[in-house]
Amino acid sequence: MSTASTRIPSLDGLRAISIGMVVVSHLTVGYDRWLDVGNLGVRVFFVISGYLITTLLLAEVAKTRTISLRGFYLRRIARIFPAFYAFLAVMLVLDATGAIALAPSDTIAAFTYTMNYHYDRSWYVGHIWSLSVEEQFYLLWPALLLLAGVRRGLVVAAAFVVLAPLIRVATWYLLPEQRIGIGESFQTIFDAIATGCLLAGVRRWLSGQPRYLAALRSPWFVFVPLLAFGCNYMKGHAITDFLVGETLTNLAIALCIDRWVRWPDDRVGRLLNTRPMIFVGGLSYSLYLWQQVFVEKHRAWAVQKLPLNLVCMVGAALASYYLIEQPVLRLRARLR
Question: Which value, to the nearest 10 degrees, does the dihedral of the CA atoms of residues 222, 228, 229, 230 take?
Fold first, then answer.
C-alpha cells in the first residue's frame, strides 16, 4: 500500500496521528494524565488494521473467489518480521551487555508474539503487546474468512463487537487475577480490530444510505472525534468504560476512517494527505518499534532526554525503514 496508485487516501495521515499520540503519551508518562492518549492511539492503529486487511482480503475474494493464505502470510512476514526481529536482536544485545534489563520470559513472549499475555515484562519490550494482538489477528482472520465465508466471517466479527464488552466485565468480576490483562489479552481487545473489519465489510452497503452519508458529511461530525477523545478518559470508571466507552471509541474511530477515506478533499482530509503526514504514517511501524527505547520514564541515559531522544527515535526509525523494511519489500516485489 505504499504506491500512489494503491494507497487508500487518509489512512497514512491517521496513522501519523496515532503514532503521535503514542509518543506524546510516553513522553509525558507520570506528568499529565490529560495527555494519556497512548491507549487511543493504539486503538486507531487497531481499527485501521482491521479495515485495511479486510478491504484487501475482500478485494482478493472479488477477483479470485478465494483467499491465498500462503500469499497473505508471506506478505505479512516480509512486511513485519525483518524489522521486528532486528529490533528484538538489538534489545537482546543491550540486555547481554547490561545496558538494559529484560524481565524473565520477555524473550520468549516477544519471539512468539504472546506479549499480550505476559504482564510481568520490562518497559523496553512492553509495547510488543499490541503487535502480538495484530499477529494473532493476522493468523486467525484470513483463515476464518476463507473457511467460513465472507458473510459468516463478518457475522463473527459483529458478534465479537457485541460480546467483548461482556467479556471485559466478566473478567473484571469473575477473574480478578486477570484484570491486569483487560485491554491487552486478545479476547478483551479484538473488538477494536473487528470494528474495522465490519466497516470494510459493510462500506459498500453504507454507500447506498443517503442519511448515513449526509450525517458523515455534516458539520456536526466534529463531535465524533471529540467523542473518541472523551471516551478515552472513562478509564477511571472501569465498568462504564468496559461496557460503553471502548465500544463508542471504536465506532467513532471507524466513522472518522470512513469519512476521510470517502472525502479526503475537505480541510481535515487535505491535512491527512499532505506529504509529511503520509511520510510519517508510512514510518509509523518503525517509529512504534523504536520509540519505547528512548522514552523510558526514568530518563537514565542522555538519549532518553529531550530533545536528543526525539532525534534518536526518528534516526532509529529511519534506519529501520530504509535499511531493512524497504529493501525487503523491494525483494518481495521482485520475487513476486
Answer: 100
